[in-house]
Amino acid sequence: MIQMAGVEYSIYFTAPSAGLNTINLLKAPTTLVGTMFNAPYLGIVLDAVRTAYIPNSGLIGLSTPIIKTHYRFEGLQINVVFPQAGMVGILYFGTPTNDSIPLEAYAGVVVQVSASNSGTSAANLTASGTWQFPQGNVKLTGIGYSPADQNIGYDVWSFTTAGGLLVQGFGVAQLLAQGKPDIVPLNDVFTAQTLTVTVNMNGVPAGKTHTVYLIAYYRF
After folding, report:
1. Average pLDDT of the segment spanning 3-31
2. Would you say residue 115 lies in a domain?
3. Is residue 78 domain-resident?
4. Number of compact structural domains in the chain
5. For position 36, which CATH number holds?
6. Residue 160: pLDDT over 70
7. pLDDT at 186 over 70
8. pLDDT above 70 (res 179)
9. Which of 22, 75, 182, 200 is buried most deeply by CB count within 10 Å?
């Protein structure tokens, strides 16, 4: 018998608070096949060490396309990480499609970087944040970019590798769409337990604050 790929059931959620929360599933075991939500990212706890952070892929203010991923849960409850209270979304369960990405590929750490323009005209700002990994000497596999607002012309983020090489990425809030998260793939770049990333924020309007979430994906 041929098993068709697709959704068997779904769970709509509203975040009661920011940070770690739980979601009850309808049956066990069950396989996550996708999600959609209206926040910069959604965290799903994989085990005691790793959390998968799925960056949003929708245009701010519009509906987010479904992000296809897959992971089998054995219990009736999963732990999730919400960046903000009140965010809403849907988890889809069933049989994954061929173009689905394993949830383990999203294992990473997230840092929030913010800066405010207190002037009377648009300005270019610079701010930094630090990724904290569960251990040292991990291999970076990608960097995800997810803005929390449209108070920006464009962002350029950068960090220096342990080998002294510069890695940069470019982000424009208005261009994220079509179910494709903004992730720069990396070729197993080694890093220590902490790594500082700098964001050059170009064209922040007067009196506005710009916030971006950067996710460092890794493997051991």
Report:
1. 94
2. yes
3. yes
4. 2
5. 2.60.120
6. yes
7. yes
8. no
9. 182
0.90 exceeded by pTM = yes
Where would I find the beta strands (DSSP E) of the chain? Answer: 6-14, 19-24, 30-37, 41-45, 51-55, 67-73, 77-82, 88-95, 101-102, 108-116, 123-132, 138-147, 154-160, 166-171, 182-191, 194-204, 209-219
- Say if residue 98 is in the same domain as residue 117: no
3-state secondary structure of 136: coil
Q: Tell me if 67 is assigned to some domain.
A: yes
Decide: 217 and 105 in contact? Cβ < 8 Å: yes
Structural domain containing residue 23? 6-105
Sheet of 209-219, strands arranged across: 108-116, 209-219, 138-147, 182-191
CA nearest to 103, candidates 58, 47, 187, 19: 47
DSSP 107: B
Residue 5 near residue 68 (C-beta atoms within 8 A): no
Are 140 and 188 contained in the same domain? yes
Domain boundary among 60, 85, 105: 105
